[in-house]
């Protein structure tokens, strides 16, 4: 079988980044595009696994999820803390939705592992975002400090997001396949755009 970047070397790469990043000597792991790409590929794999699942994917209650679209005219005008809050809140919402769906479909042996992966991935991404906060606040090397996430603001003053970011604009989903589609789109869209801006990488629509 062909090599999969999410298995073997891919997972080892991510683990090395997460495990070794405890000093301010380098940029945060999320400033390496390969780390977010790993999360995106995982999300797409889960989404593809449920193509055509039909009624089996229906949820007994609607679950709130973040709106995955990006308004490219509005986004650059948002304050850094607003962009950070939107992304952090969205990732937290995805983790909560996956956890709730897992409870609702606990008896389904096929769905449970997918939902555990979705919840675990969202929680891991949330931890990396929180660690990014700590590094910027602690003065470590890494993302741009002029208008980035939780570092200094455009004029050099503090621009720290609130400890509990405001909830992002939300949708509601009533099926598991739709939940995982939003998960994939949010990572590929808003999270990716946010990190490109925060880490000083070229932004491509």
UniProtKB/TrEMBL annotation:
Keywords on record: Disulfide bond, Erythrocyte maturation, Hormone, Secreted, Signal
Gene Ontology terms: biological process: erythrocyte maturation
Matching entries from InterPro entries are given as: 4_helix_cytokine-like_core, EPO_TPO, Erythroptn
Gene Ontology CC, one term:
extracellular space
Q: Taking the first listed entry, what is the main subcellular location of this protein, grouped into a coarse class?
A: secreted
Q: Where is it localised? A: Secreted
Mind telling me which SUPFAM superfamilies this protein's record contains? 4-helical cytokines
- What PANTHER family has UniProt attached to this entry? ERYTHROPOIETIN
Q: Which family does it belong to?
A: Belongs to the EPO/TPO family.
State the protein's name: Erythropoietin
């Amino acid at each position: 079988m062909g090599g999969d970047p999410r298995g073997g070397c891919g997972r080892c790469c991510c683990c090395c980044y997460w495990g070794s990043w405890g000093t301010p000597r380098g940029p945060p792991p999320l400033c390496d595009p390969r780390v977010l790409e790993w999360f995106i590929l995982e999300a797409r794999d889960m989404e593809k696994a449920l193509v055509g699942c039909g009624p089996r994917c229906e949820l007994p209650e609607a679950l709130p999820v973040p709106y995955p679209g990006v308004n490219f005219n509005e986004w650059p005008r948002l304050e850094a803390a607003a962009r950070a809050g939107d992304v952090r809140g969205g990732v937290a919402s995805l983790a909560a939705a996956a956890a709730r769906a897992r409870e609702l479909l606990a008896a389904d042996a096929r769905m449970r592992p997918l939902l555990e992966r979705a919840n675990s991935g969202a929680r891991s991404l949330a931890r990396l975002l929180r660690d990014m906060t700590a590094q910027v606040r602690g003065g470590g090397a890494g993302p741009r400090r002029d208008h980035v996430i939780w570092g200094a603001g455009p004029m050099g003053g503090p621009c720290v997001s609130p400890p509990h970011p405001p909830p992002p604009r939300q949708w509601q989903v009533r099926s598991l396949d739709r939940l995982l589609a939003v998960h994939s789109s949010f990572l590929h869209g808003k999270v990716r755009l946010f990190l490109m801006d925060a880490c000083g990488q070229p932004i491509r629509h």
